[in-house]
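Batch job 17 of 40 flagged for manual review because the log was empty.
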Amino acid sequence: MAAGLAALGNWQDWDTGYIVQAARQISGPAMETAMFAAAAVCTFVLLESTVLAATRLPFAMAEDGYFHRTLARLHPRLGTPARAIVLSVLICAALAVLTVTQLIAIYAWLRVATSMMTLLSLWRLRHTAPELPRRFLVPGDRFGIATVVVLPILFFAWALINSDPQSRLWGPLCLACGPLAYAFICRRKPAA
């Protein structure tokens, strides 16, 4: 990217796939083909690693009783969670109708929710278990903890409000599925 910016300097024209066009302008069709091939391989590897890593989530949740137990079964010969892999592939295929920009924006909503839960758990632990031994303590007493928790949440809110319009629709809908699924699972699980 630095070489492309230095050679062409027209960063305002850069959009999805522009690195391939920039390679052609800099070095010709051979470089364009090489950049396209590299981009395709990187995209495939990224998707492959995401699919393989994401399959562990339904597998582990099935082991814990949050998903159907058949997703926790391992393939008899390969020792992999084949059903969880197939489920993840089907979900990825269903999401392929969205643009990359929309997918990233929706992912941002879900990632922000995870980060906010982490920050709020820090705040709650400070109040519910103040004597708990910690390796790191946020300095500044109430002001320090409020700063560490509230400022990132304000930045998250600003980013989400200014995100893609489609993600402002789908992001909250995806987030709403979590509490609904949790309530459904809690009603189905026998009391311990």
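Reviewer: the log was empty due to a logging misconfiguration, but the result itself is present. The first helix runs from residue 2 to 8. Unflagging and moving on to job 18.
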